[in-house]
Design a protein that fits this description.
Helix content is 56%, strand content 11%. It is built from 23 helices and eleven strands.
Amino acid sequence: MNIIIVDDQISVLNGIMSGINFNKIGIDRVFTATNVSEAKEIIKTNDIDILLSDIEMPGENGLSLCRWVYENHSSTIIILLTSHASFTYAKESIKFGCFDYVIQPAPYHEIEDVIMRAVSKIMSDRQKNHYYDVESTSQLVLNLFSQNPSNKQQSILSLNQMGYTLKEDSTIRAIIIDIYPYSESESPTLSDLPIFIALLEGANKSFYSPAIYPLVCLNRYKQFVVLLVCNDKSLEAIAPDAFKSFYQDLCREIGPELSCYATPISQLANIRDTIYTGHQLLTNNVAKKPGMYFTEKDVLNTGSTNILENIARWTKLLENNQFSLLEENIFSYLNFNVSINRLNLEILCEFHQQLTKIFFIYSYQQNIDIMGLFTDEYSYNEYMNSFKDVKSLKKGISFIVNAVAFASSTDDLKDDVERAKEFILANISNDISVKDVADYVHLSPEYFSKLFKKKTGENVKNYILRIKVDAAKDLLENPNIPVSMVASELGYNNFSHFTQMFKKHENVTPSEYRKKTQNKSNIL
């Protein structure tokens, strides 16, 4: 980033040059001029981001230069210096887009603060210009992590051209953000753009420094990465509270179901090793507890999980066909170890292997086809990969327990379906749900739905509607019963809902059906 300082007094120029640490506040190159004409020539031939100019000068004054810059180089930020607190000057400078107005004599730290704010505004504006091209910018940032050196160097070059000063020895610190509703969904309800904006604005607020600029990308695991970059020691000055503030702001902006993982400070040359430490933190948070994490200690306590002792008990429960108790027992074990932060990826993987072993041995002993247990909705591969987090593992356990139970007791299951049908007929006048029926036969809604479909070839919900439609048709054949009463008798308080349901199944409304049946009876 470049600045030009314009003042007709050499002593003032030298004083500003020596009194302000331009490199510290993000200025790469400083130009000086002693008059407006000289300043214009420099601005014409160089990319000038900030103009710091005195107003009172011989010949053309600073306001004249301000007007020319405003008309010809509108992106340049203008800061004016004057020894007169004149309202006329202030009014004129505002008219030409002046960023700030400093009354001389001013201490150098005051001038430095104004320049720092100007630098921050330029960086913020540049980021906003790239918000709507997040896909290509994200890919450039993502390529910084590439194993291919040419991809990385091309990204460094491109990002430098966009105004970000990146070098192999640039200081970096990364934050991996796992937004659970986004990363866990095949069709995320959250869109990328608002998240990118929230991350950039949050980083600018929490880690504000003219020397630090945040870059954001989306990795292949659908997790976001904020990369903080600087070319001095500014990152070392960021306190842990700033990261906690960043996390809290994200929770307010996006929602509480997210975790942030901060890596140690490193250099761009070591970016792959740096991001790996953050990835380890993330993968070992198998319970997916929301929070701001810095080290492995944040996500895991050491100690025994007594897996083998529990495996022996669970094997006995399985052999005795106590499937519900088995599932409840396994979930209690997982919940307890989650509550004391005792689980990581390695432990969960071993746990999954031991459980799979006892289920597969049991299936072999019972002549159950292992591959036949799985469906299009829940595949063998999905089960074998369910060790990566507690939520996925619970889903896998619930499926395998119910699938084995289903394969082990076909006759009992048939009785459950028949009892379900009787319950539906007995409650046809009520607004019953799949869960109501499943609760009646003491099965989970998911397992019961699968069982019912397998035994009847029909979806439970469709079966309930079909039975109601058949009953409605019988009642509609009696012309003395109002259509509204038919709807009420079948548990429909909303008449239009009943009409829609009936028409969906019969392609005619209830009134049209009644008219058609009456015409037939008249013919006969």
